[in-house]
Amino acid sequence: MKINIFTLLVLFIVVTTNSFAQINTGMLKGRIVTINNEPVRGATVQFQHTKITTQTDADGGFSLNGVPAGTYVLVVSNIGYSALKQNLVIASGKNTFLNLQLSESKNELQEVAINTTKTRYQVKRSNSSTRMDIPLLSTPQSVQVVSSEVMQDRQAFTLNEIASTFTGMKANNGNGSFNMRGFTAYSPTDASFLLYNGVRGNLFLWSQQPLLYNVESVELLRGPSGALFSEGAPGGVINFVTKKPLTEARYNVDLSLGSWNFRRASLDLTGPLTKNKKLLYRAIIGYDRSKSFRNNQDKENIFLAPSLTYIFSENTNLNLELNYAHQKAVQQYDNGTFIRTRPDGTFDFNYYPDNLTIQSPSDYGKTDNASATLTFNHRFAKDLDLTVVQRGVRNVLDFTDHIPVGKIRNDSVSRAYQDWRTDRFSLQTTAYGTYTTKTGSIKHQVIIGADYNRYGWTKNDYQYKPSTRISIFNPDYSNDPPASSVEAEESDDNKRITNLLGLYIQDQLSFSEKFKALLSIRYDNYNGQETPLSARDNKQGDELQATGWIPRFGLVYLPMTNVSVYGTFLRSFNPQTSNNVLSGGPFPTRTATQYELGSKADFFNEQLSATLSLYQINYANILTAAPTEENSHRQAAIDGTRSRGVELSATGTIGNFNIIAGYAYNEHIVLSNSAFGKKGDRFANAPKHIANLWLKYNLRTTAAKGLGLAAGVRYVSDQVGLISNQNFVFPEYTVFDAAVNYQRGRYNIQFNAYNLTNKHYFTGSRSSTVTAGLGDPFNYRIGISYQIR
């Protein structure tokens, strides 16, 4: 599959140019709130007796561009609220802003409410990328948001299952490894590329697929984002926006069944606990269990997420959110299927059956993850806000695993055994104030903030032992696991505490409605110490002391109210996650620098949002696996790599169609010769081309009202599995999906089919040519959801 980048650019420019042809028009923007000053999401905003309409986003905001000058009657409506009408004059070339308030209604129309929110794919605002309430159109960074409606239509229940919906992103395997802009984002230890509501503290470990039970939307902030969050993986940061308590009572239940004995159930309850609706609650309960087309895979998840919000006044509120995730598995993650090396050094990806695995039926994994987040918001005045967040996370893991050692010979392979028990934590305090002011004609939105993060582990008990060699076709697991008398070749028994202090200031300057700038600077100080807990720890303790400045600079120009052009300079600064001497450390600090140019536009009466971006990321001292037969855990810092590419994405609604489409070209190469690769070598798990399309048609006719038909396709070009072996290349693949749903009243019944052609494909490599991540064959899911009230 070949895609002409020049053609895409020309099409985008032509469509954008057509937008400039609009004359004699004005613009209306606004925000819809309740009497408690809460945003009203999904409200319909329409000029009466016209087709000019839109819906409010998650923050209650809306925008109508290109409105012909004239006098109108504006109608705002939403289920559960009394409709509001207001006469309005739209003047040519003028921008009008309205703050409107809807009053609650006693009419019960939940059926329509479901239909209203079901089709919302487009999200126009994100506070996470700048911590400011500004539209994505005015944000000088490529940001993509996947809403809960998309997740529901896809029946995606983990981040891995929704990853391919993001332009240029893919899951590398069945655990927490992802590729964004050519870089592997992975969370093996203390820090993470995953944020929750813009705050550090990943709930899930590296060996898990992050669950989406309590997630309202998933945001991808592309490129290094260390200026606000400290942790900034060079390819991007994922932010989970969690579901919050609502002022109106809603009770939802969801049930799903699928291939490989998959079953899932969830309950979502929310509403007020007091008559004055000042104390609100939300309780989310989830359970799922599944096997696999692979041998010895059995996984069970239990998820609990209660939360409370207390509204002191329209200016002050306090939110407490608790999360608990328990997972029990025979094998917590899949180490991958076997790959045969031919005598000439090439690879046969179809030789070994897909069900065979190097892991043992005696392996197991058990995790208990918990978090608590307390968020305080207060508005001192119209132009001054304060947010204080305290987040604590604890991850307890008990895990055993068999891994390959050396190469496959005569259809047999040597193995090693890992036994790991660890207790990890993260305590994050974040406080920042937002102040809006003016200096002459220049408007400022200033944020001043501080972060303190104390993280690490209080226990890290790890043993690595040799294990038995097995026949791949006829494995004998009778001697698994190794006897306790077998001496460990590697052994850890330590604790590690790291303290991070970050200070930052950011200013968004509005020189006019058309020209804006974003300036920020951050200072981070890391101080950490690893301490052996017994003589069994045969490694030297790590010491970490690192400081650095992180700048960010962006410009935005809006030639039209629905079109913007931006440029940005981003950096990240992160200490290595490992500095142990026996792993090859200490390692120099990782730094990433990104240059990006792009354009954003809202088309079809602002119902479809499109983004075009061109970028280059220079990454120094990236830490990568460099295993040897003597030390399978050896790592090394590469002198430097360069990732550059083009991305084009579109999300929204055209008539009865909901659409998510994207194409990404990326070239990620090594910049210098080293023991692990030559100059110009391709980076691991980084395909040059990724394309995705998801299209849903919602039938509106009387006979078929409530019926939805959807189809999707994703294409991934070939990718190198290891930097050290450029001949280890996974073939390109194209996968087709489809779905149908029927919504009637409070019910929604849905059927999803994945990989319709049963394509045999590989998602990525871990650290050898012996095994590789295997994509799922044809499978299906059936789901039913019911809104109790």
From TrEMBL:
SUPFAM superfamilies reported in the protein's UniProt record: Carboxypeptidase regulatory domain-like, Porins
GO CC annotations, alphabetized: cell outer membrane
Domain named TonB-dependent receptor-like beta-barrel: residues: 317-756
Main location: membrane
Name this protein carries in UniProt: Ferrichrome-iron receptor
Family: Belongs to the TonB-dependent receptor family.
PANTHER family xrefs: FERRICHROME IRON RECEPTOR-RELATED, FERRICHROME OUTER MEMBRANE TRANSPORTER_PHAGE RECEPTOR
One GO molecular-function entry: siderophore uptake transmembrane transporter activity
Membrane topology, as annotated: Multi-pass membrane protein
Organism this protein belongs to: Pedobacter antarcticus 4BY
Residue stretches making up the TonB-dependent receptor plug domain: 136-237
Signal peptide residues on this chain, from the entry's feature table: 1-21
Taxonomic placement: Bacteria, Pseudomonadati, Bacteroidota, Sphingobacteriia, Sphingobacteriales
Compartments it resides in: Cell outer membrane
